[in-house]
Fold:
Amino acid sequence: MTSPIDPRAVALLALTSLPAVAAQPAEDLGSKWGTETEERKYYRVVSLPIPEELTIEAGAFTTLPDGRIAVGTRHGDIYLVDGVDDPKPEPTYTLFASGMDEIFGLEAVDGGLLVTQSCELTRVSDADGDGRADRFDVVSAGWGYENYHEYAFGTGPDKDGNVHVALGLSYSYHSRALFRGWVLKVTPDGETIPVASGLRSPGGIGPDENGQVFYIESQGPWNSSCSLKAVTEGSFHGHPVSFNWYPYAPNLGEAPTTPNSGTRILTEKERVPELTPYAIVFPYIRMGRSIMGFTVDDTGGSFGPFEDQIFLGDFSLSVILRATTEQVNGVWQGACYPFREGLSTGLLDVHFSPEGKLIAGGTNRGWPVRGLEPFALERLEWTGITPFEVERITIHPEGFDVRFTLPVDPETASRPENWVMGTFTHIYHGAYGGPEVDRTVPEVRSVTVSSDGLSARVVLDTLKKGHVHEFDLAALRSAAGEPLLHRDAYYTVNEIPAARSHPVPEDPRWLTYPAKDAGEDAPHVVFVVGDQEYRSEECSPMLAEMFAERHGMHTTVLFAQDEQGRVDPTAKIKWEDREVVHDIPGLEHLEGADAVVFYTRLLTLPDDQLAHIYRYLDSGRPILAIRTANHGFIGWDYRVNGERVPFGEGVLGGSFRGHHGNWSRDSTRASVVAEHAGHPILVGVDDVWGTTDVYRTYPEGGGLPERCVPLLMGQPLIGRTPDGPPNEKKIALPVAWTRTFTGSAGEESRVFHTTMGSARDFECEDMRRLLLNATLWGLDREADIRPDLEVAPVGAYEPLESGFNYEKLGVRPRPPADFR
Amino acid sequence: MGGLRSDAVSPVPYRGAMKVSPVALGALALALASIASASTPGDHHGEAPGGGGVRPAAVDGREEIARLGCAACHDDLQPAGQRLAPDLGLAAERLRPDFLLRYLADPVEAQPGTRMPDLMADRTPGERAEVARALAAFLASEAPATDGAPAGGPGEAARDSDPKRGDRIYHEVGCVMCHGERRGGAPLPEGGRSLDHVAGKYTADGLAAFLHEPLAHRPGGLMPDMHLDRGEAADLAAYLIPAEGAGPAGEPLPGEAALVDAGREHFRTLRCAACHGDVGGVEAPLPFPAGPLGAGCASKAPPAGLPVYDLSDGQRVALVEAAGQLGEPRAPEVELASTMAALRCTACHERDGVGGVPAALDGFLTTDEPDLGEPARRPPTLSGVGAKLRREWLERVLHDGASVRPYMHTRMPVFGDANVADLPGHLEALDAEEPLVFPRPEGEEWKEAREAARTMLGTTGLGCVSCHQFNTKDAPGFQGVDLITTPERLRERWFRDFMVKPTSKVADIVMPESWPGGEPVYDTLLGADTDRQLGAIWHYLALGRSARNPKGIDQPRWDVNVEGRARLYRGRSRIAGFRGVAVGFEEGLNYAFDANNGALAGLWRGDFVSVNWNGQGAGDFNPRGRPVELPRDLAFAAGEGPPDPWPVRPVMTEENPVNPDPTYPRQHGYRFRGYHLDGDGVPTLRYSIGAVDVEDRTVPLKEGDRTVLRRSITFDAPGAGPMVFRALAGLVEVPDSGGFLFGKLRLTLAPLSPLKPKMFELRSVESGSELLLHLPLPAGPSTLELTYDLAD
Structure:
């Protein structure tokens, strides 16, 4: 529970004289958002009636396997509720268990319910099957419980079965019993491990959509607003009064340095490395004042356009808020947004029903509350109409990316003066609450609206670390002319992502993808692209973006293009037109490349362009090549010791000699070469199938040349489906291998080549993984290769078919930007 | 909101004067003038506004266009809107098969006055019957798969329903205001509609399902949702369809696939979906330029092939006239009057002299609080309601069914969001008064104002809480509207004017004037300044939950009682510490166990416990009898010889408030494991002492004429070994009569205790003595049985 109440009043509340209501000072609740009339068009609040004879002060919810909702209450009861999703709800309530002590954590687990009550974590079950609980087994009581205000909030088990319990302070201001003000982790076998200190008055604890555990902290000493904080092992959450228990937490070592009072949280973080800054600050009153339970929208869209976001209930103001998180430089931060006001009671927890409605409940007892009902259960349901809202705000090195639920009017949104912004922070101190200080007004330098209108990139003159960045977007309009349902949003900046200093300037002739969260040493990978059959212009940007967004690489895609600067997959080759000379602008940037991926086919390049490639081959840096690259160039004249070295045979270790599988009829199933199964490039790669046929790269009866290590053997399959039968007449041939190559300067390069790799082939997850692993291997970063590296494309990836019938396939020259 | 605002509304300075909107008064007169005044015969649609007979009947042509669904075909009539026709997907499960067939064949004949037109005027009776059969088969195939009964199973409505309860509901919640009383006597209200046809139309289950969720079946909103729960809907259905009177409902509807397909095709070609919406994938056809109404459907003899409506001359005139005026937007007061008439708001509510409950039905307005006078039973006037209620509250009433008068038996229904969407805005605009803001005092003045408000509200002040609930707590006298809802619902100016002269806003109100003529009766507070006093009350009530109870309002007391099954209650307590467990028995014997330390902490006779669930109270419990308190230290020590001194629990003091021994009693081997309940709710507490598992169960037992508590402690030891049990500590006496005395408690070893202590040691300690039982535990289970006898 939160208690924005006077410390002197609380100190008097000994156990023998628990607080009478008369002890509460009267308090104002602040003004409303004034958005209820509009909000109800999109989200209806529907009462879930409670029979007159029952008192249900909900403190925690969970869904049972049979679809019923279990509600744990402040009175220590658990009711099983049926019918919460009915169109006109008239739920039935079955008392399952009673006599427990303030339930603020509830999760259905195998064979019962896991209940966090003030005194302990308990497994409650119905052994005799009569529908009423009869077994109450203690899982952990590993914390002290001896003083007033010592509430306990629990998560459900995470993927490893661990439960996190957040423990409020004694009398709200002290830590007089063991681990008050701490988060404990309880393992499945009941071992109780101290994890984090410095809590004040937690209001709820649980995972965000990434599985990261957060707890919500209340305004009070060392906390000038409510905030979400990320719980990690050893983290300290700002209130030093609980340092006295470090001797009982030997796993965490010495207590952190005691922070100074009266500074700023990021200033103190310099002195106190364990200090975890507020991930999301909820500006006091404007965005709640006693935020309690929260949950993640996992409804798959049934609750509207906010999937995977956090929804939080506020006790005092009877409102529901929304939040999004992201991790920058290893630190969690994010934004919060108003969502719905006008609920009937003080909210203690929120929970999604099986049909994707948000159940909210609680009581208005004990502290100031706006909602007038002494207790209530309600559900919020989406009307199916999408409100025009800020969907989420994320940070970039120079400002923010703001996404909308509906297209924004580019005219109003691209005017910087329509983005009214301010920043502030709080004093980090031991006094109760505190003002918003150090206000600044950043200059909005530019706003760029995406072509679909769904996002805007805002560039500011400066981002202030440690500040809440406020947005007032009253002037924005949707494409349909509507104002935002909620004009306000608040982003807490703890960290600023490093500037993505891409080594290649932006230019319409090529694509650059700056590395996300790049350090100084982010590698630069260049794709050299130009083929006429396999849609290299589609898969290369996808791979480049994935490398940049997910693996910290700066990437550049250089395209072969026509005189109008369009990528032209329909371009003729010299065999068809003797006059043809192809053009790949930007090859000079191979100079600074750390790796190059070639995906060319029969290009005739001017000598000065070829010279850049030759120089690269001399550099000893890695060479990766896909499919047609082994016959990538015509008019090639690269020499080592005066000898001409063809690109396919000489550099890559093989060239196209013919379609071994039936061209455009067979597909390829690639299997790992057992002898080299331990090769780093094959980590996590065991399921490669593609629509391309197998190339033959050496004469029948021959083999790969020396210094080649075969990784995958490709078996032609009849037909172009993954479950097609093997083409019995065809043996498997190597389709991916490595080798080393020594250039004219005597430098040795790592080489990887796969003869698979049409754009469609890269729809296969392990095909993408193969290329990522190969790139990391080429960069001598084998140590970073793991079987679960993220290889999902960053956006939708729906490449066109391979082939030369361009018109039918919809292939035509287009500017490079179209492939972004 | 945020500190960034440049356009915040600044409070309007309080001037204390009332300004009436000139628009409001003339609204209705104007409204009616613009509605065609053609008279209507006795059909059920197109009634005049008002059941009170105040105004002559008139036909609202635009509403007629919406109701008849003209815009389904006439695209130029779309500005009039279209009330959604019943959901036919639910028709087959709702209606009697015989009625459905008759109705589909000839709607006007089957139900005179229906809005449904005759779409087969040019067909023979035989053809009509054939089409009806096919349509019925199609509709039956589209009905939700519930075996023809509403959710919950077949015949649910009939099973527990009670026509007597239905009769009461019918005459109490407001049905009578539109459908007339059914006990004989009063005539049907003007424009009302008798329900005599209902028994021949609906099945009982179908009617119950309809009454439970009328808006799901008929989204047009003309039959509103009266907040009937399933049971009430079934009772009402049983009342309206008497078991004996309904007669056989005919054969079940046909279901042959070919017939269903034919029905689907009729559904499409007859354009049913245009009004009724998509059923079974037949999409609603688009409207088209359909020509003038007067020469078509609204003419006296519509050309062949057009739908034929059962229209009066008045309706025809009004329809044609309204159709010609659709280009002109109607004034808000006209729109409002039209909606209120259509939804029959005026059947219950009076507004500006129109409407209200007719005298003949007044007796059906009842209340639980008759002493609160007429406003406790009569739906409130809607004159000036837009100036009375905040916009958000109006919306909660109209959309969410919010209500603050639980004592009033007549219910305010909801009509469906779309059907009332414009009402709050119109009411707000038409009734607008200049806003008034009570300035909020600061600092000491605010403190003074709070105290003054609390005094005035209390029974020793103006006595407001004598007749009003406060913060959901009962008033000592009558349970009028909860005062705490005031700022949530009301506008400040209305509140001020009402308080100064209540009858100026609510005629017949039983409420004393405490500021007669604007002068305060209570002249010792806040400088006898009326506006300061009212402002203080306003801001005090705006505190909501944190407003202290005025004098006269008491905190409720929470008792946990034991009836039948034993009762276990966990919580913080003075007697058993924070991890306390209280166990009560119907026999009036109770005990408390300190689960933190593993000690029986106390026993008492009488009622079980009261708990603190007021304010922030976390449910801490207190015995309701006077307990014998036992030491709450660890009770068991495994091993040879008792530890000396016995490890007692750490005690925190004001000087040393932090637990000096935070791992007690864990470091002595004690762990609480939980408990399980038997079929009578009797708990067996489980804990362990080192490697020894303990099950500890206490039950009341008759011993001679005394009821005692028998405690059985079962040890399960991995190997034989000694265990010491510190059963008592303090002033322990050893009487000649046997056992040990500890205040009112006599502790004895049960005669048949399987496990016998090797020794009873009484060891002197500072506080008196400790009773130590030396137990020779065998390997495996062994049980010690003790009797705790508490003197009366």
Notes: The CA atoms of residues 103 and 401 of chain A lie 40 Å apart.
